[in-house]
Amino acid sequence: MKLQLTQRGTTVTIEDDHEMRTCHEMAQLFRDLLLAHGYHHKSVEEALPTEDAIDDFIAEALDREMPFVDNIY
Predict the structure, then answer these.
(1) In angstroms, rounded to a whole number, what is the distance separating the alpha carbons of residues 9 and 66?
(2) Residue ranges per structural domain of the chain
(3) What would the pLDDT profile of 24-63 be if each residue is shown by its tens digit?
(4) pTM (predicted TM-score)
């Protein structure tokens, strides 16, 4: 597999020998590609949050809405 991003004359490539990737693994490779091209970590995280970031967001929202309930995460 080969992922490639070319912008403003700069090309960043990720090559991988794995035939099968999960959707979450592919999302991480896209994050890595953007970071390697120079995108700011915070903007990448906002556009493509990780599973952990989503879990944290849900836990924080639940804690705000139902502070009396033990956090399930």
Answers:
(1) 50
(2) 2-65
(3) 899 999 999 999 999 999 999 999 998 888 888 888 888 8
(4) 0.71
Distance (Å, rounded) from C-alpha 70 to C-alpha 20?
Answer: 38
Would you state the pLDDT for residue 63? 81
In single-letter form, the type of residue at position 27 comes to A
- Tokens for 17, please give them: 């020998």
| Tokens found for residue 27 | 């999302």
3-state secondary structure of 44: helix
- 3's enclosing H/E stretch is strand 2-7
Taking the C-alpha atoms of residue 18 and residue 36, their distance in angstroms, rounded to an integer, is 20
d(CA 33, CA 7): 12
Here the tokens at position 57 are: 């967001």
Contact 29, 5 (CB under 8 A): no
